[in-house]
Amino acid sequence: MRKTLIALMLAAALPTVAMAMPEGPGPMGEPSGHMMGGPGHGGEHGPRGKGGPFSQLDLSKEQREQIRKLMGDQWHARKDLVKKYLDKLPAADQKAMQDEIAAGKQKTQADIRAVLKPDQQKQYDEIVKKQTERRAEWKEFQAWKAQQAQKAQ
């Protein structure tokens, strides 16, 4: 159980660590960032830009879309797998893990904010606020959707 909890905590922390990686080349000259060469927002990073593992393959648009879909499916499957094992933990352990993840996220946001200039901090705060609102709306929608499914049965 302890090994499972540690593995789940590591899996939950990986996105935070990946986002905290510095820009620029890594210690061996390779691009830092995600597996595909960066955050995936275009530019010099990601599958469409320079430096990604697929950039040298001269992929067609259809091939890029298929690969994007496969990688997205893999991400969702991994997320579902983590949730499956998290659901097996006792409620107290689940709550403790969620609290620890939330504390780590808040610390990372505070650390990011400390790096920014005052005008960037205001913009960052607005972005975080909008993301929080969108997540709340999404949870409301999911609850409504589940309620509608129950009524239909």
From TrEMBL:
Signal peptide: 1-20
Region (Disordered): 24-61
Recorded superkingdom: Bacteria
Gene Ontology, cellular component aspect: outer membrane-bounded periplasmic space
GO terms assigned for molecular function: unfolded protein binding
Keyword terms, alphabetized: Signal
PANTHER family, per database record: PERIPLASMIC CHAPERONE SPY
Name of this chain's protein: LTXXQ domain protein
